[in-house]
Every structure is written in structure tokens, then in C-alpha cells.
Design a protein that fits this description.
Elements: H1 5-8, H2 21-37, E1 39-42, H3 48-60, E2 66-72, E3 93-100, H4 110-115, H5 120-128, E4 134-135, E5 143-148, E6 154-157, E7 163-170, E8 174-175, E9 178-181, H6 191-199, E10 206-208, E11 215-218, E12 224-227, E13 230-231, E14 236-244, H7 253-260, H8 265-269
Antiparallel strand pairs: 1-11, 2-3, 3-5, 4-14, 5-14, 6-12, 7-11, 7-14, 8-13, 9-10, 9-12
Helix pairs in contact: 2-5
Protein name: Fe2OG dioxygenase domain-containing protein
Family: Belongs to the iron/ascorbate-dependent oxidoreductase family.
Keywords: Iron, Metal-binding, Oxidoreductase
Length: about 280
């Protein structure tokens, strides 16, 4: 059945579609949080019906998730023997996770109804204060669901895209906290601080527990982050909406294959098109 945005998003509490003092105050708070550490959370962004609809949709396509079990560094690159052994690019961690690619979510389903709702993109752009603001053009990754099960998690990494918007749908019984080191790569790679995070000696790491229905805006291109391992039989579902600074950007073929288990012709046609020179 078709969905209405108002049934899914708590627009009475969070009128992202309606200019006025309530929206202005919400944007101001989110901007302040983003200025402070590159991360902001809007609690109870979804209605209970919205949480239920997204959970049902994710359950229905959970078999389409690409599960991968491998070892990666924070940049998703290969080992570089020319660097010292303890360099962050040479430190690899077990990764066990699953992503449900974007092409599994119908245009009239609840996830894309939220993404396409009036004012959603404009609200995110206003919060980020970005003049250059585009939806990620990757047909496998513009809006996806991260699915994690017992024992899974996601080790320390940087995002390829500059702005990530996540929507918590369902938590596991235990674990799954979001840990991040705010903006440690803003300006340069900052390998020394990255190493301290990996060593567990950094004083910059923050821990955040998201509840179902919470909306998070995060500058993951610059902040090292991870999802702590989960415990229990219930899956953790988190929707991810991605935005970038340049039109037409898609994932690199190597990383796309790692995350989704397949590539499309567009990934090879646009390989190497980047908005910055950071290591992925």
C-alpha cells in the first residue's frame, strides 16, 4: 500500500517541511551539534508506525543483504608494505556485516517515501549549511539498510561520502553502540591520531546509543567511527541516506564490491571521480 510521509515521520514534533520558528529552532540545534563534533541526533524522528513499517520492509528484503567476513583497514585499501608496520594503513581488523543495497527498496515503500518526502533533502542541507549538496548517485548505495547480527559489528573506518544521514530502525538485544572520533581527519589524514584511536588511547572518542526512530546526521568523511559488536538473535537495522558535494558521484569499484558483492557498469565508468584527495 502507498505510504504518506506524515504516517512515518513525526511531523508535528519535527516539522521539517514547514518553515517557521519550530523548524528554525531544530535546524539551529542540529547546526550547533554539527559544529561542535560533526554529529547530531534528532530523537524520535519517526512515529511508532514508521518504525514498524521500516522494520517490516527490512525484514522482507533481509535475504538480499550482502554478508561479508574479511579483514579491512580504516580506508578499505590493500596493505602497503612500504609503510612502517604500525601505520594505520597497515592495521587490519575483522569485519562481519551486511548491507541491503538500494535497488531492493521500492519507490513507493516506506524507506524511499521518507527519503522523497517534502522538505527532507532541504532540511538536511540547511542543517549541514552546504551550498554544494547532492544525493549520492550510486544506484546501489544512495539509500541502504545496514543489517547486523549476533557477533557482527563494523570496525573503525571513514566514509567515502561527505555527509551521511542514518535512521535507527531496530536494535539488537545488546551492543551496537556508535563510537566516533569527531573530525580528526578535517584538513589532513592525521595518521597519529588515527593510530591512537586504533590503540584505544585516544581521548577524542565519543559513544552514542541510538534508539529506533532516531535520525542522525554525521560527517563520516572526516570522523573515524565504528559500530561495536552485537549480542543476541535480533538483527540491528539502520537505514543510511548518503549525500555528497559533487553531482554524479558513485562508489569506487573495489569498495562497492566489498560492501555489496557486485558492481554495475556505472561504477567502472565513473571510477576515479572524487571530490577530494583523501584515502577512501
Amino acid at each position: 500500500m502507498p505510504y504518506a510521509a506524515r504516517d512515518l515521520i513525526d511531523l508535528d514534533r519535527h516539522p521539517i517541511h514547514q518553515p517557521g520558528p519550530v523548524r528554525d529552532a531544530l535546524v539551529a540545534r542540529v547546526r550547533a551539534d554539527l559544529d561542535r563534533d560533526g554529529c547530531a541526533v534528532i530523537k524520535s524522528f519517526l512515529t511508532q508506525a514508521g518504525i514498524a513499517a521500516l522494520t517490516e520492509e527490512a525484514d522482507g528484503v533481509s535475504d538480499k543483504g550482502h554478508r561479508s567476513f574479511n579483514r579491512t583497514n580504516v580506508y578499505f585499501t590493500k596493505d602497503d608494505p612500504s609503510l612502517p608496520e604500525g601505520h594505520p594503513k597497515r592495521r587490519f581488523f575483522d569485519r562481519s556485516n551486511a548491507f541491503i543495497p538500494a535497488d531492493n527498496f521500492a519507490g513507493d515503500g516506506p524507506l524511499r517515501t521518507i527519503h522523497d518526502s517534502a522538505g527532507f533533502d532541504d532540511f538536511i542541507q540547511d542543517c549541514l549549511q552546504e551550498e554544494r549538496f547532492y544525493r549520492y548517485a550510486d544506484p546501489l548505495a544512495d539509500v541502504i539498510v545496514n543489517m547486523a547480527e549476533d557477533g557482527a559489528g563494523f570496525p573503525w573506518h571513514f566514509d567515502t561520502n561527505n555527509f551521511t544521514v542514518t535512521l535507527a530502525i531496530q536494535n539488537a538485544e545488546e551492543g551496537g553502540a556508535f563510537e566516533y572520533a569527531p573530525r580528526i581527519r578535517k584538513g589532513d589524514e592525521n595518521f597519529d591520531e588515527v593510530a591512537r584511536v586504533l590503540d584505544g588511547t585516544s581521548d577524542k572518542v565519543k559513544v552514542l546509543t541510538l534508539e529506533p526512530g532516531d535520525l542522525q546526521i554525521f560527517r563520516g568523511r572526516y570522523s573515524l567511527h565504528r559500530v561495536a559488536p552485537l549480542k543476541g538473535p535480533r538483527r540491528r537495522y539502520v537505514a543510511i541516506f548518503s549525500y555528497v558535494e559533487e553531482p554524479g558521484m558513485v562508489g569506487a569499484p573495489e569498495r562497492t564490491m566489498q560492501l555489496y558483492g557486485r558492481t554495475l557498469p556505472i561504477h567502472h565508468e565513473r571510477a576515479g571521480r572524487r571530490a577530494d584527495s583523501y584515502i577512501d
